[in-house]
Specification:
Elements (H helix, E strand, L loop, with lengths): L15 E3 L2 E3 L6 E2 L1 H6 L6 E2 L5 E2 L5 E3 L3 E2 L6 E2 L4 E2 L3 E2 L6 E5 L2 E5 L4 E3 L1
The structure holds zinc ion.
The site of zinc ion (ZN) has 8 residues, from loops.
């Protein structure tokens, strides 16, 4: 059975293959599976300086980030240890100030 990746825009699992493109019925996002396949041979995540990040790296926030859906603000300079890289819009799975959050790689730098 063909495995269809989750929607890169909203992470929905209800995506389907529509001839050429993958389609997400939940946010109407469409994308080319060939592009996804091309990035499949290794997750490459770069920090704000263009340095390649790897699982287990420590990172530092380069700007204040307001957490979606809350009043919590992560301060510039906050550190996250032992990050985990994931596919998707927010590539970094980590803990900042004891909170498990997802970050965009463009807002961090390697510690
Ligand atoms: Zn979607």
């Amino acid at each position: 059975m063909e495995s269809i990746p989750n929607c890169p825009a909203c992470q929905s699992e209800h995506t389907y293959h529509d001839g050429t493109f993958y389609v997400c019925p939940e946010c109407a996002h469409e994308w080319d599976p060939n592009e996804v396949a091309a990035s499949d041979d290794g997750l490459q995540v770069k920090d704000s300086n263009g340095n390649l990040l790897t699982d287990g790296d420590d990172i530092i926030l380069i700007k204040d980030l307001k957490l979606k859906g809350s009043s919590t603000v992560l301060k510039k300079g906050a550190k996250a240890k032992g990050i985990r890289l994931v596919e998707g819009d927010h590539e970094i799975d980590c803990k900042v100030d004891g909170m498990k959050i997802m970050l965009k790689a463009c807002f961090v730098k390697k510690a």
